[in-house]
């Protein structure tokens, strides 16, 4: 029986980069007999325009049915003035939560061909290869109560709640340790245990899980120190596991160390490795529709999908190799352009990867 | 009548760096007829050892009485296994909260003499001069309820609360705008308004306060983007205002951009400019007692104290100039050492500043 992939182009540059990623996916599908069937839907602004909400029930039902989701990006100024509860981001948060995609994997890899693009000194980042494992369906993103109220004295007050349960921490810690096992066996758990109750439990549970992974060298770091160490000496890290909010901040910081966020894919997995795959970058409304966007992060997200959700390591490797090949050929979109290279648009870059594959 | 300064050496390298800062303060006191009287107390581990708690009531009473507090640093492995509620950091959080020191000013300045120390490329950080204004007595650091409980099913669960009231946001926003007015008139307010209720109120109130500062160019940025932009192009910022937790993370990240966190002072002010002054770095237990620590951040904290709490801009400028002079002379502690410079210890560096002053 064929496996299904739901494709959600989303907003801004989403449709353009997804078009290239789908070319690559279709070719891999054929070449490796993957027997994948693609269906399309809307998320974010595109869903608001069509269905009035950023994630329609019918799309969510489809997402539950399929084996993997490929997402472009969501959001843009067009929907910035819309009522908060139905903004584009809400669709993204809802699909993560409803599908139980608690494990967000965000690699920060420096491509040797793009070493110059980093704002850090070459010796600080050369060979950088970190994996941030971010908890994605708990913590302050989804905790209740959360509200804005007016106090008796007429003053407004707002509050959020940051909750974590043992089982939520345990399952994401396991992902962290599992990833460390197939990499360099070093895991750094990041929290703020000197201040937060939730972080104290986080640290306790991570310590408990560590007993099952005697080969992994575990360390703990406060989030403020982690934000510093990522700038000072990022290569000290192998796998970093952290909560939803800290992971949001640190994974963006880490991805920017490479200077080429247009190259970085991500995976969000549930407990059965069903996943949603998307580039780390956003919908870049300023360059949307111009054929300028870099499709490589989305193409590499296809590779992650084949690896994690379909256990097709061979096809995944081949796509990564093809991306590396086009970089070797000197092709660059505007965001990663440097002297002596050949500047290409979105479609030309996608076609080059297809050709290399 | 003479003004009083409470000196809290604290733990680790605290006593060593404070000794040098006090030399400088005493000289400035004499030279500029400041009529300051110094009293000493304990905070953190030192207070635990002497009083059994990280901040004794008598010390807190003294802190309320004086006009400014000069702090070294707190914490160390010796007190890591102590019961959580009386760890060294608790003393720090308590004194901030009890004295109402809601405005934490953390400059991130690149000293031209130390330009090489940064892990970022020179062109990205040369001339860097950012001020992070962090809310220090509210938010998730102090919000209740916060607890760890055991659920009916036997599972542990922990939670924290992130509250902000209109008046808390308004007063820190004013500090941000006031600082922008005496600098380059650019303020960036950092929040996570696409996810958090508290951040939505934060943004609303900052917008309201902005009406009183038509000359200041205000922007808003999500915290994940701010963590990226600090790495990508930090010079785009002038003043950044943000909440307690985001400020903890971003100010540490920003300070590390300069490569010389041993150089950076900080001020924590109440609504009458009474303040506590301390270096941005920690207690560095690994080098404590060896005479290796860099006293310049603490000496520059004295300068901030004279500027903000005692309105002695002349004396403050003179101390900053003296620090710049010793750097020009080529003196360096280990943390900022580079080729061709002269390596000195804590006391020698302090003495050099005294001589330059
Ligand atoms: C758009 C936003 C809600 C989202 C998040 O904060 O999770 C984004 O920043 C991300 O990291 O995927
Ligand atoms: C020691 C710790 C509680 C403190 C904080 O988080 O505020 C420190 O990191 C700081 O920034 O002064």
Automatic annotation (TrEMBL), chains A, B:
State the reactions this protein catalyses. Answer: (2R,3S)-3-isopropylmalate + NAD(+) = 4-methyl-2-oxopentanoate + CO2 + NADH
Q: Which InterPro entries match?
A: IsoCit/isopropylmalate_DH_CS (IPR019818), IsoPropMal-DH-like_dom (IPR024084), Isopropylmalate_DH (IPR004429)
The entry's keywords = Amino-acid biosynthesis, Branched-chain amino acid biosynthesis, Cytoplasm, Leucine biosynthesis, Magnesium, Manganese, Metal-binding, NAD, Oxidoreductase
Question: Which Gene3D superfamilies does the protein's record reference?
Answer: Isopropylmalate Dehydrogenase (3.40.718.10)
Domain of life here? Answer: Bacteria
Cofactor remark from the record: Binds 1 Mg(2+) or Mn(2+) ion per subunit.
User: At which positions is Mg(2+) bound?
Assistant: 224, 248, 252
Enumerate the SMART domains for this protein: Iso_dh
> Whom does it interact with, and what assembly results?
Homodimer.
Q: What is this protein called?
A: 3-isopropylmalate dehydrogenase
Native source species: Thiopseudomonas denitrificans
What does the organism's lineage look like at the top? Bacteria, Pseudomonadati, Pseudomonadota, Gammaproteobacteria, Pseudomonadales
Originating gene = leuB
């Amino acid at each position: 029986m064929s496996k299904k992939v739901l494709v959600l182009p989303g907003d801004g540059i989403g449709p353009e980069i997804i078009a290239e990623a789908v070319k690559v996916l279709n070719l891999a599908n054929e070449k490796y007999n993957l027997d994948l069937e693609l269906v399309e839907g809307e998320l974010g602004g595109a869903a608001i325009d069509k269905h009035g909400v950023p994630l329609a029930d019918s799309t969510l039902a489809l997402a539950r049915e399929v084996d993997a989701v490929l997402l472009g990006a969501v959001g843009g100024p067009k929907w910035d003035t819309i009522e908060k509860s139905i903004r584009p981001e809400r669709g993204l948060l809802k699909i993560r939560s409803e599908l139980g995609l608690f494990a967000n994997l965000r690699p920060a890899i420096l491509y040797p061909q793009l070493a110059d693009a980093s704002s850090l000194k070459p010796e600080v980042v050369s060979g950088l290869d970190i994996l941030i494992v971010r908890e994605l369906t708990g913590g302050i993103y989804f905790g209740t109560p959360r509200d804005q109220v007016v106090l008796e004295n007429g003053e407004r007050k707002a509050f959020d709640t940051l909750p974590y349960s043992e089982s939520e921490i345990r399952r994401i810690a396991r992902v962290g340790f599992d990833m460390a096992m197939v990499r360099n066996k070093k895991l750094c758990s990041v929290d703020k245990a000197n201040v937060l109750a939730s972080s104290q439990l986080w640290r306790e549970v991570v310590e408990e899980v560590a007993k099952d992974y005697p080969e992994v060298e575990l360390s703990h770091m406060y989030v403020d120190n982690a934000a510093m160490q990522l700038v000072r000496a990022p290569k000290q890290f192998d796998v970093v596991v952290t909560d939803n909010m800290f992971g949001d901040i640190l994974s963006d910081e880490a991805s920017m160390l490479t200077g080429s966020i247009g190259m970085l894919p991500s995976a969000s997995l549930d407990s059965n490795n069903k996943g949603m795959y998307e580039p780390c970058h956003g919908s870049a409304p300023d360059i949307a529709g111009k054929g300028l966007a870099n499709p490589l992060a989305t193409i590499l997200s296809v590779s992650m999908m084949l690896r994690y959700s379909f256990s097709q390591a061979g096809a995944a490797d081949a796509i990564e190799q093809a991306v590396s090949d086009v970089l070797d050929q000197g092709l660059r979109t505007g965001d990663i352009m440097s002297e002596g290279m050949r500047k290409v648009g979105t479609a030309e870059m996608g076609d080059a990867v297809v050709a290399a594959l």
